[in-house]
Amino acid sequence: MKQRTLKLAALVFALLALVCLAAACGKVTHEVVFDADGGSAVVGITVADGQAIGNAPHSEKEGCKLKGWSADGGETLFDFSTPVTRPMTLKAVWENVASQTPQQPVTVTFEDDGKVIAQVTIEKGGKVFAPDYSKEGFELVWKNGGETFAFDTAIDSDLNLVAEFSPVMLSVTVQDADGLRLDEVEVAYGQAADIQLEPTHWAYPEIFTFSGWDKPVDCVKENMTVTAVYDYKSLPESLFYFNLLDDGTYEIAVKRTLDFRYMNLDGDWGVPATFNNKPVSKIASYGLSSLYKGFKDIDLLYIPESVKIVDAYAFDGLDIPRVDFAGLEQIWAMAFFNCAFELNLPASLCEIEPYAFFQFGLINRLNSQNDRSVNLSSDCENFFMSGLALYSSDGSELVYIDYLNRTSENAELVVPDTVKTVYPALLWQAWGIDSIVFEGDVETIGSGFLYSNFIQSVTFNGTVERIEGAEATYELKGAITRDHASQLKTGAFQQCTRLSASGTFVLPTGLKYIGDYAFAFTEFGEINLDGIEFIGKGAFFVTRYTKFHSITVANSDKYYSHENRALIEKGTGPVFNGKAGDTFLVYAPVIENFTPENGESLLIDTYTVPQGVTAFHNFAFNCAYYIKHLIIPEGVQKLPMGFINSNLTSGVYNPETQQITEYYFGVHDISLPSTLTDIESYGEWCISNEYYPALTLGENFTGFVWPNGCNLEKIEYYSIHTRQTEVELPATVTDYSASGYGNMYLENITVEEGNGRYLSFGGWLYEKIGGNELRLVHIPRASANADGKLIFPDTGEYILTEIASNAAYGIMKSYDNQGQIVFDGITEIEFPDTVRVIDDLAFNGCSAIKSVTFPAGIEYIGDNAFSQTRLIESITFNGILPPKMGENVFSVLFEEPLANATIHIPNGTYACWSAFLAEYGKLYGINYFKALETPQSFTYNFESNGGTEVESVQSYDLWSLPYTEWAGEGERFFQGWFTKDGSVDGDWGERVFGAPYVGKADSLGVVTLYARFGEDRYEDGSDVPFAFVVSETTRKLTLNAWTTTFFEFTPERDGLYLMKMNFDHVAYSDSGFGTFDKATNTVNGYRYTTVYDENWNVLYLGFECKAGQTYYIFYEFSEQNVYTGEIEVPLAEYEFTVEWQGEIPAQQA
Q: Which segments in the chain show pLDDT lower than 70?
C-alpha cells in the first residue's frame, strides 16, 4: 500500500510537471529540481519565467513528516506562490515523527466536462492551489458539488472539483470626434458590439459626414473606446497648387487664373487638409484668391485644424458669408486684406502680425453685403475680444478694431488703461468711430493709426511716450506689396482734418518720440513739448496753417524753441566754424486775430533765424505770410524744397461799394548767407508734388540780399517761384536747371558779369557747350519773344545747336481777371537752321502751338518734347532723312495726338518717311503716319474674280484692304489679294497684307490687285476674312505672330460669352467682340454686359451674342511676358474656347 501511494504521488507530480512545461512552451523557462533527501523521489519540472510552481510536491519518508521544501538548506521554507526567476533546487525538510501517527494523504481531482485536468495528492488537512487552466473569453469557477470551492479550505478527504465557465462581459465606450461620450455598449467577449447610433457632426454637418468608427467592433476582446470618424467634404485638389515646405508640410494656393465657376461650388466646403498624406499647414499668399471668383457661392469655408498659418493676401477678393478656422496659430500681415465674411478664429491662435486685418470687411474699398465680423474663441489663451476690439491676453496690445459694425451707440472707442501698444493702421481711412478715449498711459501708437480718418475727438487721460510715423518698420513674415508698403508709410495721426477742425485736439503729455509725418495735415494751435527725444520729418506739416501760432520745448537735450515760434534740432546740421550746426524744423506762422484790414500793424518786421542754424527741413517756413524781412545766418549751405511759401493775396469785399480790395502779404526780402550754394526743388520727402519750389514768394517780394557776398552755385528746376518780371543770374552759378526761375511773370533773365558758363540774349538764358555752340536753357514764360511766333534772339558770334529739357515749359495763353487774353503764348516755332537737338520735354505744356518747322539738320527730338500741344496743325520737316525721335513726341493726355495735324516733308522723301513713321508707330504704339501728307496718288483697282465688286481707291498707300466674298455658284473662300491674276496660269505673284501697302503703279498710275478664291478656307487671324473659327468647343491653334488677331464665332444659343485661352502671360492692349460692317470693312466693337443679383453683386459678365449671328473677336497681342518682362515670347500651340457665361435676365435685357 505504501509503495502504491508513493508511485501515485510521483505520477501526479509528473503530470503537473507536464502541464507546467506545456504552459512554458515558447517562453523563457527555468529548471526546478526536487531533492527528496531520502524520501520518495519527485520529478523535476520546468517553469516559465515569472510563474509560480503552485502546489508543493508530496514525498514520504519512513518515520518522518514532510514539513516543506527549502532553497537555502532548510533555514526557511519555500513559498510555492513565489514567481520563479532562476533555476533552483528545492530540498525536502523532514520532521522526525516516529512516535506520531502518520497522516494519510488525500487526492484532489480537477475535471472539466468529464475530463481530468489534474490530480494533486496532499496530506490530509492541507490546502490545494488551483491549476493553471483557462479558456479564452470565459471566467472560470471551480465547483464542489455545485458550490464554489474556496481554495483556502483545509482538505480532509479526497475531493473532485469541476470547472464551470461563464463568458466575460466587456464594455465599449462610444465617443464623438471631439471626445464627447455618446454611449456605452456591453458585449460578450469575442462578439460584435451592437452600436445603434450614427452621430451627426456637432458643428459642420455638411462638411463632415459620419463614415464609421476608428476601430473594428465585430469581435470585441477587451474593454475599448471607439471614436466617430467622418468623411471630409474637401474642395477638389485639382483647384490648387501644393508647395512642399521645409518642415515636410504643404502650403496651398488656388490656381488663380483657373475658371472653375462651372463646378457650382455652393453650400459648405472645406479646404484640403492633406496632400500626399502630409498635412496642409499654410494658406499661401493669394492662396484662396480666385480671379474668377470661383468660391463666391460658398456659404461656409472651413479651414481645417492642420492649417496653422495664413499668409499675406490669402483671401484677397473673397466675399462669402462665413470662414471658420479650426487650428490657426499665426495670422501674417495683410492676411485678411480686401475680403469680407464672418471670420471665426480658434483658441489655438497665438500670433497676429501688424496689418493682419488691414481693410478686412471691404471689397475694393466698398462695403460688402455679407457679415464682416471677427469672432474669437473664448478659450484662446493669447488674445481676447471685447467691445468690437481684439486685445492680447494681458490687454497690453490693441490688435484689431472693428469699425464697420459700429453704430451711433458705440461710436466712441474707449481704449482701456491696460493698453500699452496700439497696432499700426487700425483705423486707416476708417469710419464709424467719432471719438477715442485713451484711459491710461500708452507706450506706443503705431504708424497710420488714424490716417485720413474723419474722427472728431481724441482724448488722452494718460501719457503717451511714442507716436510713430512713416519711418516705422515692423518685422513681418507676410510680404506686402510695394504699393501697400508705400501707402502705409504714414503718420499715426496724419490727415485727420476733422480732428484739426475741432480746435480741441492737443498733444498728449509724456511724448518722447514723434515719427515722420506723425501729425502731417493735422493742425494744432499750439505745440508744447516736454522731454522730447525725437521728432521726425514733416511731423507737423500742414499745407496751409490757419491756427498754428506757438511752439515751446522744455527739458530736452536735443531740441529747443526760438521765440516760441520755431522748433530747432541741436547738432544735426552741417559743420560751420568747427561746430555741428542746428537744423531748423518748423516755424509757427499764424498771428492770432489777424485780419487783412489790421494785418499791417501785426506783421513781424524782421525774423532772424538764430545763429548756429546751418540746415532747414523742407517746408520750414510754410505759410510764413506775416514776416517782412527774413534773415538767414551764415553757415547755411542749402535751401531745401519747400523752404518758404510766403505768397498770400486776401480779397475783402465791400458791400457798399461792391468792390473787392486785395491785400498782399509775404516776405519783402530775404537776406542770404555767403555760405549758401544750392537752392533745391526736389527732396527726400515730397508731400504732394514731385518738385516743389524752395522759394515761393509773392507780390511784395523785391529780391535777395547778400550782405556777405554771393557764392550760389546751383539752382534746381522750378526752385524759385516769384512774381518778379526780371532776375539776374549770379556770376557764381554753374548749375542752372531749365525753368529754375519758374514764375509765369518772368520776362527777362540777365546774367551777372563774370559768369563763365551762362549767357543771356534777348532776355533768354543760354549755356555754353563747347566752341561757339549754345544750349538754350530757359525761355522766360512771359518773354515778349514768346508771345505768338517764337522769335529766336540774335546770339552774335554764338550759334544755337540744342534746346534743353523744359527750356520753354508751360509757355501758354494767359488771361486777366475778366477772362481776356493778355498773352498768347507760343503759337508758331521755326527753329534756326543750326538746331540739331531738342531735348525731352523741351516745349512741354506749350498748349497754344499750332505750327512747328524743324530745320534740315535736326538730329534728335526727345521724349514728350512737344507734349500737350493739342492745337497743333502743321509740322514741317525740312530734312530728307528723319531724325531720331523719342517716345510720345507730340503726346496729348487723354486725346489722340496729331488729330488735326499734317506732317509736311520734302518732295521725293515719302517712302523714307512713311517707312520711318510706320516703324515708329510699331515701336511706341502711336500712329503719326496718318498725319503724313502724300506727294502723289495712285488708282488701286481690285479685280474680284467672281467675288462681289470692290470700288477703286485713290491713294498713295493702302491702310486696309477691301472685303469681298464669293458671288458665284457653290461655296468658295476668299484667300486674299494678290499682285498677279493666277486664275489662268496659277501664278498669283505675292499676297498683299500688312499696312501701309504701297503698290507698284503702271505708267498710268494704276495698281491692280486680284482676289483669289478657293475651296479651302485660309485661316491665319490676320484679318476678318482669315479669322480663326472658334466655338464653345476648345480648339488648339498656333498663332502666326503676337499681333492683331481675329477670331470668328457663330453661337448656337443666345447669351453672354467670353473668350478663354489657356495662357495668361502675354499682354494685350485691346480686345473685344464686334460685328463686321462689309460696307466700311470695319469691325464695330461693343461693350460687355454685366449681370447683377438683387444686391448689385456681380454674378457674371460677357459680350451679348445672338444665336446664328456671326461675331468677330479681336485681340491686340504683344510679344511681352507680363510676369517676367521678357520680350519676344515664343509662339506655341494654345487652346481657345468661347465660353457661355449665362443668360441675360429679362430685367437687364
A: 1-27, 98-103, 684-690, 995, 1065, 1122-1125, 1147-1149
Q: Taking the domains of the chain in order of start, what are their residue ranges?
A: 2-167, 170-232, 234-381, 724-935, 936-1017, 1024-1148
The DSSP symbol for 192 reads P
The rounded distance, in Å, linking the Cα atoms of 942 and 314 is 60
Indicate the residue type of 291: L
Q: Which residues pair with 362 in a beta bridge?
A: 367
∠ CA 334-339-340, nearest 5°, is: 135
Coil, helix or strand at residue 11: helix
Architecture of the domain spanning 1024-1148: Sandwich (2.60)
Give the number of residues written for the chain: 1149
CA 946 to CA 972: how far, in whole Å?
10
- The DSSP bridge pattern shows strands 748-751 and 726-729 to be parallel
Q: What type of residue is 368?
A: S
d(C-alpha 901, C-alpha 895), whole Å:
13
> For residue 601, what pLDDT is reported?
85
Place of cell 474699398: 365
Distances (CA, A) of 1134 to 178, 815, 1060, 1116: 50, 59, 11, 16
* Cα atoms found within 13 Å of the Cα of residue 376, Cβ hemisphere only: 25
Indicate the class that CATH gives domain 724-935.
Answer: alpha beta
> What is the CA 465 to chain-centroid distance, rounded?
32
Residues 6+ apart with CB under 8 A from 501: none
**Which residues make Cβ contacts (< 8 Å) with residue 1052, sequence separation at least 6?**
1032, 1107, 1108
- 154-188 in b/e form (b: 16+ CB < 10 A) is ebeeebebbbeeeebebebebbbeeeeeeeebebe
Exposure b/e, 270-292, CB count within 10 A at least 16 = b: bbbbbbeeebbbbbbbbbbbbeb
Q: What is the pLDDT of residue 25?
A: 42
For residue 649, what are the CA distances in angstroms to 595, 660, 661, 662, 664? 12, 12, 10, 7, 5
CATH number of 936-1017, picked from 1.10.10.10, 2.60.40.4270, 3.30.70.2390, 3.30.70.20: 2.60.40.4270
Fold for the domain defined by 234-381: 3.80.10
Q: Counting Cβ atoms within 10 Å, is residue 246 exposed (0-12), middle (13-18) or buried (19+)? A: exposed
Measured distance CA(535)–CA(513) in Å, rounded: 6
Burial class (CB in 10 A: 0-12, 13-18, 19+), 973: middle
CA distance 689 to 482: 20
pLDDT at 1148: 57
- The answer to whether domain 2-167 and domain 170-232 are alike in fold is yes
Q: What pLDDT digit, counting tens, does each position of 84-134 carry?
A: 899 999 888 988 876 555 567 888 999 998 898 888 888 888 888 888 788
Give the CA dihedral 511, 513, 516, 518, nearest 10 degrees.
-20
pLDDT tens, 781-818?
999 999 999 999 999 999 999 999 999 999 998 888 77
Report how far residue 183's alpha carbon sits from residue 174's, in angstroms, rounded to the nearest whole number. 5
pTM (2 d.p.): 0.71
- CATH topology for 2-167 is Immunoglobulin-like (2.60.40)
> What are the C-alpha distances in Å from 155 to residues 43, 123, 124, 128, 152?
24, 8, 6, 8, 9
**Residue 711 in 3-state DSSP?**
coil
pLDDT of residue 17: 42
Q: What does the DSSP 8-state code read for residue 725?
A: S
CATH classification number, 170-232, choose in 1.20.58.90, 2.60.40.4270, 1.10.443.10, 3.90.1170.50:
2.60.40.4270
